[in-house]
Every structure is written in structure tokens, then in C-alpha cells.
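User: These chains co-purify. Model them together.
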Amino acid sequence: MSKSNFTRRGVLRTGAASGAGLALPTIFTASSASAFTNNPTGSSVTLGFNVPQTGPYADEGLDELRAYELAVEHLNGKGDGGCLNTFSSKALDGTGILGKEVKFVTGDTQTKSDAARASAKSMIEKDGAIMITGGSSSGVAVAVQGLCQEAGVIFMAGLTHSNDTTGKDKKANGFRHFFDAYMSGAALAPVLEKVLGADRKAYHLTADYTWGWTQQESIQAATEAVGWETVNNVLTPLAQTDFSSYIAPVLNSGADVLVLNHYGGNMVNSLTNAVQFGLRDKMANGKQFEIVVPLYSELMAKGAGANIQGILGSTNWSWTLQDEGTKAFVKSFGTKYGFPPSNAAQTCYAQALLYADAVQRAGSFNPCAVVEALEGDSSSLPGIDSPSNSGFVFDGLGNGPTLYRSADHQCFKDVLVMRGKENPTNEYDLLEVVEITPTAQVWYEPDHPMFAGGQLGECNPGA
Amino acid sequence: MLGLNKRDTTLLIAVAILTLFAPFILNPFPEGSAMAQFNAGYPDLMQRFVIFGIFAVGFNILFGLTGYLSFGHAAFLGVGSYSAVWMFKLLSMNVLPAIILAVIVSGMFAVVIGYISLRRSGIYFSILTLAFAQMSFALAYSVLTPITNGETGLQVYNDDPQYLMGPDSPTATNLFGLEMRSTYTLDIGHWSFDFNAGYYMCALIMLIAVYLSIRIFRSPFGLMLKAVKSNQQRMNYTGLNTRPYTLAAFVISGMYAGLAGGLMASMDPLAGAERMQWTASGEVVLMTILGGAGTLIGPILGAGFIKYFENIFSKINDTVLHQWFAFLPDGLEDFMVFIVHPFIGKGWHLTLGLLFMMVVIFLPGGLVEGGQRISAWIRRRNTDDAEKANGKTKPAE
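Assistant: Joint model of the two components:
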């Protein structure tokens, strides 16, 4: 090995130098005093839109970004105002937020928790974003939510469907408008019972990661409650693109329903495989064989093409709804971009408006004041008898009367059960509403076993 | 100094000065100006620069010296991160035990993987390491979820045991009370500079890592590794068993990766499985080649280059473009935005790919070769000037 010529003097000198180096940062620990992180002092306020622009959910991400840009336009009083006209809270008047013009920065989450956190951090540290929103997968949402809690900014979750986001990983600074896996199961089960009968044997194929598991757990519990039997649950690797070897055993398993707990490209591939195997033409146990996809999205439906015809699933919202909020949003989105918005776009648009409205009502950008405003005045949804039915109730953003529950920062609203259309009239009109499941049916308590374990903690204003 | 020759000492001092003044160097544009978009001097990115610098320097010990191209180095980074976060969960938020455990665990991991993979060389070695890394990724993503928390990533929760945590211990990662995220912002005129405690700790560790790497490069051990690179068969025929040397290099570079992983977790206590994916392994290969494989400073430059693109270019969107080209007439403005659009935002991969191609084609030695060519050109011009001033020209031979 090399000859080391450490002298006593040399060691002392190095020690002193590195000691000085270590001590240096402590000089700088005092932080500039401010009531909360990124207090906007100028004439504008910056929001951070953190969406996947590359990777498997890039399509969803781009649609989210379109919705955010539209929301900013409406908040600043440009365009036709969209849902500002139908929103039940009238605090927003199209002059920005608290009189400050809304500006935004965008980032690429790459659907990786690391990259998402890096991009959110740069928005907070470099661009001075006061709120982060977006995301198209639960892993990313949970990771960024944790970061925002530490940094002291508000996180308005985008498309995230896992129970954990407002379950065991819930945070005081984080809010979710989208529905979750439990609600999908609770909404689907009665419809499945009605359409397919109570005497069914289900076979599950499940994406082998957190979202897949919570989704499978939820739908299994809900269908078993209406009398179904679960034959088997097979976990499929995430990177799987060809599911034929998983589909073949289904035929001889004695099952007569296949539940695909997959999302995105996984779902497109597994569904295509299942249909190609002729599963839908088979008879099992004297019944027509059926396929169920618990979480639907317009973009996935487009990818699967004709294979989705007649297949049941759930969504958070659909552009074909006829309430005033939906009509206003679809109209301004369609005018600007030339096609109807997706689920992901709607939830992001609603989240942006909800944040702006909360700031306006609170009269301050302070995250703790915003949390208080979003937790509302203890109003409750009618028809649900529960002590946790308390929070901020609003309407006119497209989902009917909605409750932002203060106990876990989750929105409660109607859930749609959808079916792939047999005769679509155009490439956007692929799904039809089978039933609108009322909020009361998808209600659960914050300490439900599938959501237990986490605490909201205290709101953190940072700084 | 410190057993280095004059040239290496100069290099080390240059790196030290660059890292010390990075907050100034990386924030050249005043806040609020159109160019502020290109400022990179915010804590998170500066931390990433030095952490990935460490990662790449370690990778270069294996790739640059022995020529063994590992396509699975991200696995060590991930293992380091996971062990560090587990230390936060079990002991306290002090980063020191976390970093130490990260280095030890990734070292042990490297012994196992290295022992098996180094039975083959060339492309087979690369494939073996790639297979191991993908295996680790799949394990972390789903199978080992109780340990790694799967897709969501491992985080610290309020109800974790944290046995060494006192009632008033800081809840953010810290070094004996000095919080990693504490930042002092210095405002000079329109400029603002961030001095972040976590960054300076990482920078100090990077200097130590670079120093160690220089010592390894200049040692007889390093010479042996270079010999492996130039002709391993010949080494074997002379009766020398090269495998202990390559294994040692593999383990050292795995420990460097683990150190980087531990530091990443220390700056931001979350470990995601994507850190182990093959794209992450490919990234460090790109960093090293882009900067200059086998050179001392190259990998750090490459790491900075790639992270800069990932974090700065991906955030430029059409609105920003319209601001830049606002001075042009409307039609021309839209045209310019249309031209530039594919290269920014979601197209940052494209820009990076083009630059990588240009570097590999025109500067096979990486950015370091670029620097050498420029300095050689300046030196030549200076001597030319001096000769002209002397009025003497060499006669043609």
C-alpha cells in the first residue's frame, strides 16, 4: 500500500482545518425571521404544480397541468370564470388570491418519490411556492405530502387513490379531493351484486405494491359482504407487460369473475390479455364470465380500446355528468383545449380552487390558517349520522355536495360506477355512468381498520 | 500536503474552494430577473450536486481504474438510504450513526454481490450487477415491503421507537443538534445566497471522499487496478491473483455509493425504491463518462451537469418561454417557443441526450478533456504571443 507520511504537525494542522470547516456552518444557523415559509410579500403568489411529465403516467400528468393552467386563468379573472360561477363559496372574485396575482411553476415528478421530492423542494426553496399540488400515484403523493409537512407548506393531493394517503400516512398540511380504494369497493359492491348476482366467485389479479394491496383488500371486503366468495388472489409484478400466464389458470379455478386490481399500462395489458383469451365469452358455474376493473380512468379506457366494452369500474367524476359545476368546467376546458377533461384534470382543478378559496376565507396565506379554513366550520353533510361528519361543505365543483372532513382531510362525495360503452360515439365517449353511489354508502369512520395507524399531527407553518 | 503531490494538492484545493463558494457561484443571476430560472444555488440542488459527486467519484474508483463497468451501483445507494432511515427510526434523528451504518451495510452488500459478479468480466459482469440491482429493486418495491415500505418509500413516523430520542431532541435530521435544513440567507442587493448546514456537511464529506480517492489513485493498489484495466490476462499469467484487488475496489466503490445514499437520507429522510432502479444505475455511468472516466474531477463535473439538467431544465415551461421571447413580435415569439418547446420541461431528457452525444463524439475524454483543450489552447496562444513579442520565430526544420 502507499507510504503514509503523517507527521504530528501535519495531523494537528489537518485537525484544526477540518474543525474550522465543521464549525463554519454553525455561524449560519440563524434563519431570516418570517411568520411562515414563503410568505408572499410582492404583488404575486406562486403555486407549485408537481406532475409526472415523463414516465408511465405522463398522460395523466399533462392533463393535470392543463387543468391547473385553466384554474390559474380563472383565479386571475381571465377566461370565462369556469367553476368560480358555480362554486358554493363566493369568496373568490377573479382578482387572484387575496388580491395577489397567481403565478405558477411546474415540475416533473417522473412518478418517482425521489424525483418528486426533489422537484417539490426546488419549488419551495428556489421559487418560493406557498402550496404544492399534483401527482399521479399514491407513492409520490405520500412522499410529497410528508415533505410539505416538514417544510411547512400546504399539499393539495392530485390523483392518488390509495387508502394510505389520508389513512396511515395522513398529514395535517395535506388534503385529498380524490376518492380512495375503500370508496371504490363500497361503491362497486352493491352494483356488482345487482348486475352480476350475489352468488359469484371472484379471482383477483393484483399489482404487487401498496396501492394494489389496499385496492384488493377493499374490494374483497366489500364483495364478500354482499355474499361473494374469493377464490384466489395472485400478485403480479409491477413491470409485467404480458399477463397471459396469469390469465390461463383463471379458467380452471372455478371462478366466474376476474377482478383486475391494476392501474395505467398494467390494466390496459391485463385487460387486453383477458379479453383475447376469450374470458368474456366463457360460461363458468352456469353464468356468464365477467371482468371488473375497480379503478377506471378515461386515459386507460382509451388505451384498452374496444376491450373495455361492458366492463364495470368506478371513477371519481365523469365529464358526462349534468350538474352545473361539471358543465361549467367541461365547457371552459373544452373551449381552451378542444377535448373533454379527465378525472385527473377535474380533481386537480377542484383542488386549486379549493386552496385559493380557503386562503381567501382565512384572509391569510399562513398554512395553519388555511388548514383551519379547509377544515371548515363544523358543517356536515345531510343524511349521515356520525360524529366525524364535520368539516367544510361545498358544492358546485362537479361532484355534488362534498365534505372536506376535518378528521382526516379526505373529501366525501358521490362515487360513480361506470361501464365501458358498447357503442361509443367518439373517442372520448368511452364510459357510461351505471349508478351514482350516494356518499352515505361509501362513508367510513376515520378509525376504520383500513385507515387506522396514522395521526394528522399539528399543522406546520415552517420557518 | 497530506501525502499528495503538488498537482493533486492544487486539484483538491480547487475543489475545496469551489464547494465552499458554491452558494455564490451557483446563484449568479439576481432574484426576479428572467435569468433567475438558471440559478442552481438552492440548498436541495447543492446537496444533490455533492452527494451525486460522491457517488460518481466512488463509481469511478471501480470503472475508471479497473474498467469493470457495474450497471447495478444504484443498489448500494438504495441500501445505504434504507439503513440510514432505519437508524432514524430506531435511534434518533442524528445523522452520524445513520451515515456510518449506511457505509457498513452497503459495504457488506458489496462483498456479497462483488464476490459473485467478479467471477466474470466484461459484459457478463455488467449483466450480473444489473441483475442483482434489479432484484434488489423488485425486493424493495414489493416483497420486502415490511422493511422498505414499498412504493411509498421508507419514512420516519411519529410513533417510531427512536430509543435515543430525548424529550427535546430535534425532530429534523441533525448533527448533534445542528439541523441539516437550517439555512442562512444572505441578501446583497438583488442577489440572495443560501448557506445551508446540510450542504456544508455533505461538501466536507465529499472533500474527504475525493482526498481518499486521490490517495487510492496514486497508491500501488491503484496502480494494480490500472494494470487490471490494461491487461488482466497478462496479470493472471504472471501468477498474480487479481480478484482480491478487484473485489476490494468493488467494495470500496460500493461503500462510496452507500455513503452517498446515507447522506441523501440524511438531507431528506425518505428512501424510495426507485433509487435502486436500473435507470439510477445508468445515471451514474452517464455522469462518469460525461465528466471523464478515470479522471479525478470528471465524475463530480458529470454529476453536477446531469443534476442541473434534471432540476433546472425540467422546470422551464411554456409560460417561462413566452416571458423570454416577449420582446419579439408575436408571430416570431410563438415560433421561437414552438422551436424551443421540445427541449425543455418534459423534454429535458432529449436535451441531455443530445449534449451527451456531442460530448461522447467530440470530447471522448469527457468534460475534463474539454477543459484541457481550452487550457492548452490558451497556453498555446500565450506562448505564441510571447514569441511574436520577442520577434523570434523558430526556423522550419
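Chain A has 13 helices and 17 strands.
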